[in-house]
Amino acid sequence: MIARSLVAALALAAVSFATSANAQDVAAGEKSFNKCRACHQVGETAKNTVGPVLNGLFGRKSGTIEGYNYTDANKNSGITWDDAVFAEYIKDPKAKIPGTKMAFAGIKKEDEIKDLTAFLKQYGADGKKK
């Protein structure tokens, strides 16, 4: 009986830890997004500014946000954004898409990229959190 209780308690603790770790990842991603805010917006009131809106980024083809003036490099990149492509891009945008006008030094830390990805994935194409 004690062994069952211990197993149940450990399982509950593991679930609680995973849930809080995910929440921390999103919070850390929001903090990381501060590096992006000068050019990009997310959320229900987001608008294109220096860079395009990032709502609904994952699963979207590069260069397709209405009303944003993309470079031919972005429009013709053939990229559909997913975790791996975004991770490669955000490390060095100009290396991934030569000719992009995105002037950003990049984010090199894997954990920070994962946190930023978790934050961005919250937003559907309509800007609402999923």
TrEMBL record:
Protein name: Cytochrome c family protein
Record bears the keyword Heme: yes
Entries under SUPFAM superfamilies matching the protein: Cytochrome c
Stored PROSITE patterns: CYTC
Stretch forming the signal peptide: 1-23
Pfam family, one: Cytochrom_C
The species this protein was found in: Afipia massiliensis
InterPro entries linked to this entry: Cyt_c-like_dom (IPR009056), Cyt_c-like_dom_sf (IPR036909), Cyt_c_1A/1B (IPR002327)
Record keyword Ribonucleoprotein present: no
Organism lineage string: Bacteria, Pseudomonadati, Pseudomonadota, Alphaproteobacteria, Hyphomicrobiales
Example of a GO MF term: metal ion binding
Domain (Cytochrome c) ranges: 24-124
Keyword annotations from UniProtKB, A to Z: Electron transport, Heme, Iron, Metal-binding, Signal, Transport
